[in-house]
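Milestone M4 deliverable, item 7.
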Amino acid sequence: MTAWILSSCGLILAVIIIRWALGGHISGRVRSLLWLAVLLRLLVPVSPLHGNVSVMNALPKSTESVEHSDSVAGQQTAASAATDKAGLSAAGSAPQGQSAAPSPEAQTAKANHNTAVRLVWIFGGMAVGIWFALANITFYLRLSRSRERREGQDCPLPGYVSGAAASPCLFGFIRPAVYITPEAADSDNLEYVIRHEYAHFRRGDNWRSLARCACLALWWWNPLVWLAAILSREDGELACDEAVLRAVGPEKRFDYAQTLLDMTAGRRRDSSLSLAAAGLESGGREMKRRLERIAKKPRIRPWAGAAAAALTLLLAGCAFSDAKTESQTVSLTAQELTYFNTEFFNGSDMDSMIHNIIINDTFDTPAGVNLYQMFYLGTGYEEDEGALTAQEISALGYDDSICGVDRLPRAHMDAVLEKNLGISLSQ
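Output delivered:
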């Protein structure tokens, strides 16, 4: 999850920088396409690529890992237990170059914290998603109750006049339609309005708006995602402006700019981020930037668009790459090496025998622990209940001439398992 969050935020920032650096020389269509990489990263939580180009490789490692010939759960736990017994972590300091293993209490607290964060994320996303859904349903009902079919418009899509729309917009998915205001229907510049909304349809902006709403519901807590939604919508409007001017000719750009002002000035905004609608209106600052771009008619440079697209693809590849997983070998200190070679593995007590059994066993789950092998020589507790009688052995179906059979209390076995593996006999 951390990799998903960091790579998504990094890609958003990268696109914002590219957009700022080259925005004056690349078309609105290219600027809008750059956000598709961000959209994909925000909606896909997995990182299918692996390598040295991941953003996670640039982060400092919080803990070091020791490379063993058999890196299995039992070995790692036994090593932690040995370190605790040697007084290396209990004293509050770890060997040089090695981090102390977190205590079970710390691990539990961290797990509880992560669970709480996930629940807040999930329930917050559900609340925002419900809000967006209700907003779109309400908007559709307002449109459908007040709309009147408009015939004769030069557009393949059905057109309606509706007073419920604050400004002309494209709305709908299965049967998308263009909704225009009564003022737009009587305007001499209706052609510009229809061309703009049809440009939204050709670009699939109704579906892009839906995907944008999904991203905002999923990433409701992330201000960078909200900023990306605002900028991507603005770039989509620029792309539609350019499409209209290509169709009608650049000499009519001032008439088109005046139409934008007439259709949006002093009106409430329906095409907020919560609605999956595509319209020609924008906020005050966005509209100012659109009008300035229309008036100045910036020179579009193909090399700038190609460079922006190539750089975004490269950075998207980095965002979809997971961190390399190679481990780092950490040498034991002389004190640790002496302890492991003497007391831990070669001591005279039962603990050393159990350590050797664990370190030579291979298991991935608690069910894989070989209890017979581990407790073949007992638990090491003097208060074990002792040998079974011949009659008890016979009752188990064995020949009473075999070697002695000890009865091991569950409490003692639990204590050994908890100490060395952090699990209980029932597990």
